[in-house]
Design brief:
seven-stranded parallel beta sheet, 7 strands, about 40% helix
Amino acid sequence: MNLAIVTGASSGIGRAIAARFLRDGDTVINISRHPCAEPGLENIHCDLAAPGAADGLASALAPWLAAADRVCLVHNASVMHRNRVDNLADADLRATLELNLVAPNALNRIAIPHLKPGSSILYIGSTLAEKAVPGVAGYVIAKHALVGLMRATCQDLAGRGIHTCMICPGFTDTPQFRALIGDDAGILAAITGLSAFDRLIEPEEIAEAVAFAARAPVLNGALIHANLGQRER
């Protein structure tokens, strides 16, 4: 059995990733607050933003992990809020780090003892994992830190036949992205104008990159920007 565990697969990029693994015949588990509607998928309800919540998943995941010949753990769940370093409350930063960084670390502790050679741990980053824009300080901080977790994963698991990498999407047409920009056509036009293809990325395009990375140990430790190429200003 090949097993894919995807966090935040209820919508957007996460759902597209789950659907892609299902098409390959993998057993797929979604971990999120809301269920994923893809047929044939297993849902485990968990608010990964709640402190300690991920630690409680060990018993639920253990039978699946033990039975799997190969596992792909995809850390996708994330959230972006508008804030700046001059008004970023400590509580808001902690909440952002809990979901984006602490929960992946906890799931790694649960999964890694069960991972056989050929398994992978994949992180969904962002263009903002290596750069910054104003107004989303907490998200920028979290994604930069997630790069460090991926690179530590690469080094600490060296020699075990388990590979890792980070896929960094650019502007992707997801419900979270649409909620963030609202109905402002001017903002949408400005964002799509940054792409070398003058459009948003489809979630399914990111899912294809993830499916490839899951089978490609040569990418171990790599940070891959999947953003259609962005125009430099």
